Amino acid sequence: MLSHKKKTLLAALSYLSSIAILLSFMYWFLKNEGFSESNFLIAGTLVLVLASGWGYIIAAHLLAPKAELDANLSHLSTEILHELNIPLSTIRANSTMLKKRVTDDERSLQRLNRIEAASVRLERLYKELAYSIKKELQPVEKEKLLLEPLLRERIETFKAFGRNRFSLNAGEMLINIDKIGFEKMIDNLLMNAMKYSPKESLIKVTLEENVLKITDEGIGMDETQLLRVYERYYQSDSKQEGQGIGLALVKAYCDDEGIEIQIVSKKGEGTTVSLNLEKVHVY
Fold first, then answer.
1. Which tens digits make up the pLDDT trace of 20-32?
2. What's this model's pTM, rounded to 2 decimal places?
3. Does residue 172 carry a pLDDT above 80?
4. Three-state secondary structure string covering 210-270
5. How far is CA 36 from CA 33, 39, 105, in A?
6. Side-chain half-sphere exposure of 43, counting CA atoms within 13 A
7. What sign has the CA pseudo-torsion 196, 202, 208, 210?
8. What is the DSSP code string of 19-38?
9. Which of 194, 205, 151 is nearest to 175 (CA)?
10. Surface-to-core class of residue 162, CB atoms within 10 Å of its CB (0-12 exposed, 13-18 middle, 19+ buried)
11. What's the rounded Cα separation, in Å, for the pair 178 and 184?
12. Which CATH class, in words, describes the domain spanning 143-280?
């Protein structure tokens, strides 16, 4: 079964071919009947009518169903996200109320804190799902944000795992991005740095001029692995958990935003991921 892109390409080629045929007919008609204002108007009108009719047929059978499908998907996803948000809000509200009442039971407070932390992670996943659906259907609005607070917030999230140490030196930089997409990219890079690094090792996040660097002291990669690092479902270490799509998603986001990404790594020494933020930097 042909994909929508292939169908669109075939339709475009078919339309161009039909226009070429009509123009050839117009040339033949004028050549045989002689060029005059009336003959030109007759041939031109015929070409326009046939071209418009063929264009309408293509639009009606190719573009209209796609637009209807997008509208239906948008409506369905909005309803699903709304239904997901209701129980999530209920969990958070009730856990907050219970924490206010349970003040002298340490074990119960710990359990409520875990429930609250889990609900925060669920809310994060909910926002990322909403972002992914919205991005597929329409452009995502960008916003101007300070880089350092955004990075600090993401690092604090990973510090909660109690696994690695982090250092942050990002100075002051204003960037124009879609917040959730940028955060997802940073999360993927920080997760990779943690996953392939020893416990308690340091992960450094630094900004040098317009280049953001994330450096770990992990297992690193050789040249062969670096060549395949952006391949979807590829993992340099098959023993690690994951689907092997993190860096593929990072690369796709960087390409969309005009962020140049470079990875330097050495087996047994660690990896540095560099992101050139020149094109998203607001001066």
1. 777 777 777 777 7
2. 0.60
3. yes
4. CEEEEECCCCCCCHHHHHCCCCCCCCCCCCCCCCCCHHHHHHHHHHHHCCEEEEEEECCCE
5. 9, 5, 98
6. 21
7. positive
8. HHHHHHHHHHHHHHH---HH
9. 151
10. exposed
11. 10
12. alpha beta
Give me 24's structure tokens. Answer: 């050839």
DSSP 196: T
Burial of 270 (0-12, 13-18, 19+ CB in 10 A): buried
Average pLDDT, the chain: 80
Residues 6+ apart with CB under 8 A from 77: 133, 137
Contacts of 230 (CB under 8 A, 6+ apart): 247, 248, 251
DSSP state of 171: -
Give the DSSP per-residue string, 135-168: HHHSPPPPEEEEHHHHHHHHHHHHHTT---EEEE
Q: What is the pLDDT of residues 38-77, one digit of tens each?
A: 777 776 777 777 777 766 666 666 666 666 666 666 666 6
* Rounded Cα distance, 226 and 278, in Å: 24
Strand-pair partners of 273: 214, 263
d(CA 153, CA 216): 19
Q: Which two tokens stand for residue 56?
A: 């309408």
Would you state the structure tokens that stand for residue 228, as one six-digit string?
Answer: 């395949």
